[in-house]
Amino acid sequence: MTVCMGLLSCVAALTAWVVIADAKELSITTIKQEPYTMSKGSELEGYCIDLISELSTKLGFKYKLHLVKDNRYGSIDSSGNWNGMIGEVVRGEADLAVAPLTLTAVREQFVDMTTPFMQTGIGFILHKDVASEESTFSFLSPFSTEMWIGVLIAFLLTGLCIYLVGRISPTEWAEPDTDEHSFTLLHSFWYITGALTLQGAGPHPKALSGRVVSAIWWIFAVLLLACYFGNFHSMLHSNSKHISIKSFEDLANQDVIDYGTVEAGSTMLFFKNSNNPVYRRIYERMERKKSYVSSMEEGVRRTQEGNFAFIGEAVSLDLAVARYCKLTRSQEVISMRAYSIAAPLGSPLVKNLTNAILQLSESGELTYLRDKWWASSCVSADGAHVSEALLPHDLRGLFLLLGLGLGFGLLLALLELLSRARHQAKDGKKSCCSVLTSELNQRFGSRGESAEQDSSDKSKA
């Protein structure tokens, strides 16, 4: 019995292969939509074009490609006739329809459809300004989290550097045994805080090294505040109203922006036939306002203009987000569906096409095609600047300037102390290293040891 079934399967596959091989030329209909099918001079290119080529190579058929005449995917009109690519397949004007055709129960009644070559669902895109959520801490939004961490590290390092310079430089602290040190660690941080808020806090450094560190910090603070307030002003004066739209329920509950989908498409039919009250409200509003669009390109264009959300299939929306920086896609994806190839009812091509699609999926070829045609090339459509939180690399030159300034200030302080140690060593006929070590011990708390060393030196003398 098993042998007989195997023989029947082989015969069926051979018959289908012979039908394909004997066919003079398959007529394939498709539709222009990025990145599935696009014009390149007099030829076509895109995901679906590459898919057809791969299937042709695997199954060994020749084909002739043409664009659907009415630029529609396929739906039943009022007279009960199919339009679009499905209509061409039903009427025998095309042997196959290869495009982002959604597999639906209604279409399956009139055409045969292969196993899906791509999975998707329904989502929506909208302008980032509209999608942004108001926050209690929106005053932090001009800088990213990484940027705030960088500013905090810069603040701590500068305070520590001021403290070290104040202790090391002999101009700041001439006599550690008798004079009181003015630049304590607490005062150092208070001093740079005053500079950061443009208020000032004395006393100011007297040494050249301390003044260098202070000047660099002042420059850093002024430029940092300029960047902060500039970005903050840009975010506050956005042209779009700030409301939080994260889901289809949020979309249905607001009346600030319009939304729509492609007219007579599978997405529109989903909302029309849904029993979910939220989805029904979305459909009723689209019907009432007639906010449908004729194509995905028009929907993306209206979304870029602002105050409009385009509802469509997530995989196609991902492409728009990859192309245009100002757009963002909803995290919520509903009504999972798939794209398939359509053929006439009873066509022997379907079985072999299904098998070939599965092979391409298992070999990773479909993933490769997806990565190839969905590669991000984010650009702003009108060339305008998009206000976003600043990242550390945006101001890396400013942080580099501060780092160099701090290092230079510390180096100057050490040179000042070294110069004093050389003079004292020359006058006291001691080694420069011993005097420098004694000075550092005095300035960083080891006064007892240095005092004992001085007394022993005097007794020896």
UniProtKB/TrEMBL annotation:
Domain spans labelled Ionotropic glutamate receptor L-glutamate and glycine-binding: 35-91
Annotated site, Crucial to convey clamshell closure to channel opening, chain positions: I245
MF (Gene Ontology): ligand-gated monoatomic ion channel activity; signaling receptor activity
Site note Interaction with the cone snail toxin Con-ikot-ikot, residues: K272
Signal peptide (UniProt feature, chain positions): 1-23
Membrane-topology descriptor: Multi-pass membrane protein
Annotated ranges, domain Ionotropic glutamate receptor C-terminal: 25-376
GO cellular component: postsynaptic membrane
Subcellular location: Postsynaptic cell membrane
Region: Disordered, residue numbers: 442-461
Family: Belongs to the glutamate-gated ion channel (TC 1.A.10.1) family.
Function field: Receptor for glutamate that functions as a ligand-gated ion channel in the central nervous system and plays an important role in excitatory synaptic transmission. L-glutamate acts as an excitatory neurotransmitter at many synapses in the central nervous system.
PANTHER family reported in the protein's UniProt record: IONOTROPIC GLUTAMATE RECEPTOR (PTHR18966)
Designated name of the protein: Glutamate receptor
Organism classification: Eukaryota, Metazoa, Chordata, Craniata, Vertebrata
